[in-house]
Design brief:
- The protein is an alpha+beta fold and 738 residues long.
- Strands 1, 2, 3, 4, 5 and 6 form a six-stranded mixed β-sheet that branches. The protein has a four-stranded mixed β-sheet with strand order 13-15-14-16. Strands 19-20-18-21 form a four-stranded antiparallel β-sheet, covered by helices on one side.
- A hairpin with a 5-residue loop joins β7 and β8 (415-419).
- α4 (80-93) packs across α6 and α12 crosses α14 (291-305).
- The chain is elongated, with a radius of gyration of 44 Å.
């Protein structure tokens, strides 16, 4: 790359030149000169067009991408497609070069990797907590390819190496926290142990520099002593291996600073009291078919020299880890009664342990860049080989999780996992039952959506609520989670019970007024006879207005009282009672003329329509012998006249006033202060008028009131309705049938 570009400072020019030379050296013939030239041309044009700029922390994205590409090739394996995707991803994200153009120039696999990197970068706009394990899963879901995750892990390592003493301390802390909680665990799951250890050490260095420095200094102070101990410990093992004829290499290494710090905290000991600060590794050069036998031979040699702690033997050769890791770990008592860990493995096993799953590429015999898909299949084979190991989560993410779950954010960046197909309503109930019960929709990535909107991974959801909202039965059609379904059913049932209790109390009062004793068993039979399986459902129907309460009372009275009279004539005018007629307080024989001015007949004003003086009326002889007076416009009159014409009897007002009549008014108006007081004051000022009952409901600035008044004539009622209608704020006054 031309390092004379003004875009780079002098140090960056040197670094860029070194990175380019390293890439050429590592790739050899795998990365064609035409690829280099095409990538160079795109980057230079992007810089000239102003599409590549230093980020707000002063980091040069071109230098960073070249560094990442070199590290991937050095620490994992040389790969044409990964290298090109790493170098061009920023330009594609900034819109300078499209994924389709990348596909045309470099192939679909490079375009796929670029797409995954852009997808993952979008997650950082959500400002989610990376400590949340769901973020790991969402990251894998968005990446759609393990290689994208590998690029990100290595990129983070390169960034961590360069931010030591960066002036922006918050930036350093944030990057270090992400490395510790996100990228180091991912590296561990992928078997990238060397990268994982360095990420953890650098994170400790930047997050707790004092502790890091103390441990590093103590290790430096005791280095000569440790080196001498390792030399003395290894010598008898070396002699034993020489005699056995095994080809081998022995390494001694000190554990990572982060690992030492974790053990110091866990065991509450000082550095000088730790016995396993270092480990010995025996690496055998054995053919594949002799690996297990040679490893166990080396194990025997070590345990013949030093006493082994059998309880700490870890055999990952007979049963490899699910991430492909194979090794024998032995803990033995060495000189000075110190415990030392000895690891036995072959060169193949060591390369996989050091470089991760990508090392399988070499041992599967894959040579050309065209075999990338085969390499990915081999990676998946390794992932699927285990059961409950460390890579189980990765296997699920890569192969299954994308099809079964969605991951969504709150506006604050909190991340939640829900089943695929979940809606806004599911998410609302997942947050809190109260939020779910009052949900009216949501803003999804800033756009209004209904509560049946199906969530997609990466959505940011802001639930919208209203105090006037309450769950309905049809909400069950819009949810898939058991929590939401159960809460909706619970809320609907609670609402049903409230309504049922109100109706039950109302019926009890009316039965008492009618002097009818209600037997619970008999009432249940009556409800079942009417076709209802549940009394609760029956009460709800009454509350909804689908069943008239007075008709229920009349029906129950007839249900429990056998008919004692016989109809002997076809017309009601000549109707003769054969049972004794009971007196009632509801009658006044002077104000009604019934039939041919029949005297001594007991009658009642029907509760279903509440006739008052002046209404057009008719009489109906019930099976109990009493005559019920209905308004001619009553909803029940037509049915009665069709089914029982012989029970209908002429009735009219005599012209004499004697009683007050009950009338129910429905008043709708603006929910203004004082409007109810004005209505009640008006009624109380009217002569011969009594306000018997009032109920008010308010909703969205409107009120709806039901008033039961005692009044002596239709004319008087009409006048009163007109006066109420004229009050300020009243929109509508209507007389109800019941």
């Amino acid at each position: 790359m031309n390092t004379d570009l003004k875009y780079f400072n002098e140090e960056e020019k040197k670094n860029v030149a070194a990175y380019v030379e390293a890439l050429r050296s590592m790739h050899g013939s795998e990365l064609a000169e035409s690829d280099f030239q095409n990538v160079y041309r795109v980057i230079v044009e992007g810089i000239d067009a102003g599409h590549i700029k230093r980020d707000k922390y002063g980091i040069n994205p071109v230098e960073r991408s070249l560094c990442t590409a070199c590290l991937v090739n050095e620490l994992i394996a040389p790969d044409r497609n990964i290298t090109i995707a790493t170098l061009l991803y920023n330009l594609s994200r900034e819109g300078f070069v499209t994924e389709e153009q990348i596909k045309d120039m470099f192939g679909s696999d490079v375009s796929k990797l670029v797409h995954g990197l852009i997808n993952v970068s979008s997650l950082y706009k959500k400002q989610a907590a990376v400590e949340n394990d769901n973020f790991h899963k969402l990251l894998m879901t968005f990446a759609e390819d393990i290689r994208v995750i590998i690029i990100m892990i290595v990129d983070r390592l390169g960034l961590m190496r360069r931010i030591n003493h960066h002036p922006d301390e918050k930036f350093v802390r944030d990057i270090s926290s992400e490395a510790r909680y996100l990228y180091a665990p991912l590296a561990h799951r992928l078997g990238l142990y060397t990268i994982k250890s360095e990420l953890e050490d650098l994170s400790l260095k930047y997050l707790n520099r004092k502790i890091y420095t103390q441990i590093a200094q103590k290790l430096n102070e005791t280095k000569r002593q440790r080196d001498a101990y390792v030399t003395n410990f290894i010598e008898p093992i070396r002699q034993g291996l020489e005699k056995s004829g095994l080809k081998y290499e022995i390494k001694g290494r000190t554990k990572s600073i982060n690992s030492i710090w974790n053990k110091m905290r866990k065991k509450d000991v000082d550095l000088k009291d730790m016995y396993d600060l270092f480990a010995i590794r025996i690496i055998l050069d054995s053919p594949k078919e002799q690996e297990k036998r040679d490893c166990w031979t080396a194990y025997s040699i070590v345990t013949d020299i030093y006493t082994a702690n059998v309880s700490r033997l870890k055999d990952w050769i007979s049963m490899p880890k699910s991430n492909g890791y194979e090794s024998l770990h032995i803990t033995v008592r060495g000189q000075e009664d110190k415990w030392v860990e000895v690891q036995v493995r072959t060169k193949r096993m060591d390369e996989i342990a050091e470089r991760g799953l990508a090392a399988h590429w070499k041992y599967k015999g894959i040579k050309s860049e065209g075999d990338v898909d085969m390499w990915m299949n081999n990676v998946r084979e390794v992932l699927e080989a285990g059961s409950d190991g460390q890579m189980g989560l990765i296997r699920e993410m890569n192969m299954n999780l994308y099809d079964k779950e969605v991951f969504v954010f709150t506006p604050k960046g909190d991340l939640f996992k829900l089943p695929l197909g979940s809606t806004v309503l599911d998410f609302a109930f997942h947050i809190h039952s109260k939020v779910g019960c009052t949900c009216i929709g949501a803003k999804v990535d800033g756009k209004n959506q209904k509560f049946n909107y199906k969530l997609k991974s990466g959505d940011t959801i802001e639930i919208l609520t209203s105090t006037n909202q309450s769950p309905r039965q049809d909400w069950l059609n819009f949810v898939v989670t058991s929590k939401a379904r159960n809460k909706i059913k619970q809320a609907v049932n609670e609402e049903k019970m409230k309504k049922a209790d109100m109706v039950r109390e109302m019926l009890e009062r009316r039965f008492k007024n009618r002097k009818i004793d209600v037997d619970e068993a008999s009432f249940s039979k009556y409800v079942k006879k009417r076709g209802y399986k549940s009394i609760i459902d029956f009460y709800v129907e009454i509350e909804l207005g689908n069943i008239d309460a007075n008709e229920v009372i009349d029906g129950y009275a007839e249900f429990i009282k056998p008919v004692e009279q016989v109809l002997t004539h076809e017309t009601a005018d000549k109707f003769v009672l054969q049972s004794k007629v009971q007196d009632t307080d509801d009658t006044d024989s002077e104000i009604l003329i019934i039939g041919n001015d029949v005297k001594g007949i007991n009658y009642k004003f029907s509760k279903c329509c509440n006739p008052i003086y002046g209404d057009k009326i008719m009489g109906f002889i019930s099976s109990s012998g009493a005559i019920k007076i209905h308004r001619m416009d009553c909803g029940n009159v037509k049915n009665l006249m069709e089914k029982y014409p012989y029970r209908v009897i002429k009735s009219q007002w005599s012209g004499k006033l004697g009683n007050q009549f009950a009338a129910t008014l429905k008043v709708v108006g603006q929910d203004d202060i004082g409007i109810v007081t004005n209505i009640t004051s008006l009624i109380n000022k009217e002569g011969d008028t009594v306000l018997r009952n009032i109920s008010i409901n308010s909703n969205d600035g409107l009120f709806e009131g039901h008033l039961v008044i005692g009044i002596n004539s239709l004319d008087h009622l009409s006048t009163l309705i007109q006066k109420i209608q004229n009050l300020r704020g009243v929109k509508e006054v209507t007389r109800l049938s019941h």
